[in-house]
Amino acid sequence: MIVLAGGRSSRMGRDKSDLIYRDQTFLNIQLQKGRQLGIRDILVSGYRGKRCEERVVMDRLEGRGPLGGLEACLRLAAHDRCLVLSVDTPLVSVPELENLIEADEQNRGRITVLQHGEKQEPLIGIYETGLADAMAEALARGNGSVFAFLRKTGYGLYVSQGEKYQFENINEQADYQDLLFGAGQAGESFGGT
């Protein structure tokens, strides 16, 4: 599993990995999901904080966004496929991730990403580790777009029927405040069960 925890968090104004929800950091919430799924090989991309029990991997090419983090982690992964999860989607449930893994086993392409409604989530997906060289080539050409990489490489979809709130990215202070104080369904349903 790769947890994408790098980035500047410029819209949030502080590191999203260390934001607290229900007495846990966003990073720890995501790590626990991996452990619930029985994943033992967990890499954390770009984390600059001090509270991480798993192996932290810094980008080989700085400032290239999530694709740079993926490339660096895929090179170090011990398995041929990795569940990828961004740190700023703390409400995505374990059952949704189980469904994604099952869909990937059926698709068996190089990449499977989650889609809800019309929106595709390239940072909630399964990636083949052998894609690291192709990612490095894209980065060397100056193309750090994950979607551009997906379009060029091809990918499968897991179309979720899950509630939309699970996939909300917590990118700005207003998003975080909504999560903490106005979560509604999200606050009642968090925890992956």
Written description of the protein model:
With 193 residues, this protein is of the alpha/beta class. 35% of the residues lie in helices and 21% in strands. The chain contains seven helices and nine strands. It has helices at 26-36, 66-76, 94-107, 132-140, 146-153, 173-181, 185-189; strands spanning 2-4, 20-21, 24-25, 43-45, 55-57, 81-86, 111-116, 119-128, 156-160. A hairpin with a 2-residue loop joins β2 (20-21) and β3.
Describe how the helices and strands are arranged.
Layout: E1 2-4, E2 20-21, E3 24-25, H1 26-36, E4 43-45, E5 55-57, H2 66-76, E6 81-86, H3 94-107, E7 111-116, E8 119-128, H4 132-140, H5 146-153, E9 156-160, H6 173-181, H7 185-189
Parallel strand pairs: 1-4, 1-6, 4-5, 7-9
Antiparallel strand pairs: 2-3, 6-8, 7-8
Rg on CA atoms, Å: 16 Å
Distance between the termini: 20 Å
Strand order of the largest sheet: 5-4-1-6-8-7-9
Low-pLDDT residue intervals, each spanning 5 or more residues: 184-193
Strand count: 9
What is the helical fraction, as a range of percent?
25-40%
Class inferred from helices and paired strands: alpha/beta
Major β-sheet, in short? 7 strands, mixed
- What would the principal axes of the Cα set say about the shape? globular
The overall pLDDT, averaged over residues, is 88
Give me the number of helical elements: 7
Content of β-strand: 15-25%
Give the SSE string: EEEHEEHEHEEHHEHH
